[in-house]
Amino acid sequence: MKTDIRNRKDIELLVDTFYDKIKTDAVIGFLFTEIAQVNWETHLPRMYDFWENILFYTGNYNGSPMQVHKDLHSKCPMNPEHFQHWVIVFTTTVDELFEGEKAIEIKERALNIANVIMYKTLA
Ligand code: HEM
Fold first, then answer.
1. Is 82 annotated for ligand binding?
2. Is 115 part of a structural domain of the chain?
C-alpha cells in the first residue's frame, strides 16, 4: 500500500526516482546530461532541500531556480513541450510512489512552479 510523502527520506526517494528517469529521458534528458552536464552529487541534495522546504517549510533552500533555467535556455532554447513533459514525468513518478494530501500538494506546486519558470524563462 502506498503512503503519503511524510519526511525527507520520502522526498529523497521521489527525487532520486524522478532524476533516474530524467537521465535517460528521450525528450528532456539531453538538457541535463549534455547541455548542463549536471553534477548529480550536488544537484540531488539541492532538490531534496527545495522540495522539503515546499512541503514542510524547513527554510533550508536558498537557491535561484529562475536564473538557472534562464542560463540553460540561453545555451539551448527550451519550449513549452519540454516543461509539459517535465510535469508529466514528475506527476507520474509521484503517483507511482505515493498517495495522499502531500502527494497531491507536491503535484500542484510542481505544475504551478513549472508554469512560472516556463513563462519567465521563455519570455
Ligand atoms: C524542461 C524543464 C526543466 C529542465 C530542462 C530543467 C533543468 C535544470 C538544470 C539543468 C538545472 C541545473 C542543475 C545543476 O547544474 O546543478 C536545474 C536546476 C533546478 N531546477 Fe530545473 N529544469 C526544468 C524544470 C524545472 C521545474 C518545473 C522545477 C520546479 C518545479 C525545477 C526546479 C529546479 C531547481 C529548484 C533547481 C536548482 C536551482 C539551484 O538552486 O541551483 N526545474 N534544472
1. no
2. yes
